[in-house]
Amino acid sequence: MAFVHRHKGLVPYLLLLPGLGFLALFFVVPAYYLAHTSLQTGSLDAGYAFTWAWENYTDAISTYHEQLTRSLVYAGIATAIALAVSYPLAYWIAFRGGRWKTLFLLIVIAPFFVTYLIRTLAWQNILSDNGPVVEVLRAIGVLDDGERLLATSTAVVAGITYNFLPFMALPLYASLEQIDERLIEAAEDLYASRLQAFLRVTLPLSLPGVVAGTLLTFIPAAGDFVNAELLGTPREAMIGNVIQSKFLVITDYGQAAALSFVLMAAILALVLAYTRALGADRLAEAR
Amino acid sequence: MSESFTRVELLRRGAATGLFLTIPTSLLAACGGDGIEGEGGTTAASTQVSRELKDQLTISNWPLYIDIDEDTKERPTLQQFTEETGVRVRYIEDVNDNDEWFGKNRAALAGGNAIDRDITVLTDWMAGRMVRLNYVQELDKSAIPNASNLVESLRSPSFDPSRDFSMPWQSGLTGIGYDVERAGEITSIGQLLDDPKLKGKVTFLSEMPDTMGLVMQLDGADPSTVDEAAFQKAIDRLQAGVDSGQIRQFTGNDYSGLLANGDVWACAAWSGDMVQLQLDNPNLRFVIPDEGGMIWTDNMLIPTGGDVFTASTFMNFVYDPAVAAQIAAYVNYICPVIGAKEEAAKIDAELAENPLIFPDDETLSKVKIFDAEAADNEDLKSKFQAVVGA
Asked: Which of A77, B16, B239, B352 has the fewest CB atoms within 10 Å distance of its CB?
């Protein structure tokens, strides 16, 4: 007993070690090198040198603010749509799925068994100018004859939504599935309408899933470049496309790294604002 | 030479800050070496070359770029090489994009380290960069007597005037691919840029030399010696096409699916892809624009650390016309070996007559090689990338 007592303070930290070690090795160290690179100038032939080149940041923001904003907007819209689609889906599987729950979940994840790139290329076929989707939309008058879906911002957002949907659906399912249905029954017994029961019991209880899902969707979506490249035109280019081009094609490693940090900072700021807002909501709910 | 530069820097700034100068790019390449002090001395033209064959030869090449037996998944040409020399071939199809390949391997090469490849196949301008940065070794020409079979037009590219470091693997043409049923007859890049009928149905290639080479020739400029004003004029033309929505996208190989689906009616295209696409859809055509097309070459190089003698022996082997014909019969690109056409006629008479695989002199007179130096110029690349949206 005494033994356990004496070491009580130490054990949690020991358990944290593998996680901290992983983060140090695969996040802190690369982030350090990235930060270092972001202040370098040079070229392939002359070599690269660390010159405290803060202009990498200012240039990056002034030249590419358009792509940066576009990325955050696209990611935001895709996250909202993914939430709107996933919530009823996860709700239905959690509460109505019965013994088929696992199967339904498997179907949600099924696209992940195919490579990201191939999935996105498949959308080129789905949204093709002569494909079934466009034909239906033309028939019901949503699209004019000359209009198209592929190589538009709609296609890019649709591709992102599709590709990251399971990241939204799974955390939502996990938190909805844990809700004790008797709480909802109790709310209804206390004369809450079904809507009120949902808004005041189910929704608040599922908020952790909403937060996790939106973050897991928004963050990678903001840095995505595959959808914009394959489903968009140059006018839909996202910040990920710029970073890729700077790193691989132009080999301006300094500015590429600076852009990565700008993106990271932008995402971080939005995420902080978002979690604070939701946290405040939950407090209000508890009152 | 970035390596010597960084070493100088390292001394000047002191080890504390200098130590990390070469590391950060390894971020790009999880598989790259750690970039600091490499073996250092293994640069080109150093020390004497071994004249013994190694047991194994490792080759990096682009996908679908050598004959393969669809049933057994064996590669007959490589098997034949092993039978003749006893050298096993490790053949890896891991070059999908010049820039991507370079990004993955730069850290190791810059550190003077081997990248576990005896031969790697890269396009002209990237081959030029490899030579310029001293990341490759000189060929053992005494082991390549068949080099005399190299076609005249490819013997002295600007990046390697006497072919000391490189041998062509295959060449290809860049021109216009189009669907004759949808787009009608196409003869000029001007139609792609201006014809309202094609609005939103046109793509160009995201490889700068291909696209810029075609558009520059529209104004009568010569893309083999790039003049900045002419380059800018072509950039403006492209930008106008993007802004008006005339140009739909800039693509890699994926234009082939778009063309087949009818999403794209006319595009800048590579001859080899079009040979393949025409098999499925006879409406698809490939044409060298009236104002002129482009020709490019993928070159075999021996990167730092590769075994020069074994690699050179392999190069000699594929420059045997019979072997070259066997490869040409499979890959649909232009064979750079004299005599291969006659050998190919023995395999398949129709193949030998295909002008996209064995182009006639008239076709060759209409195509240009893009200025290798301009193709790797950071300013020009930035301008082009800005049009592409990035």
From this structure: B16
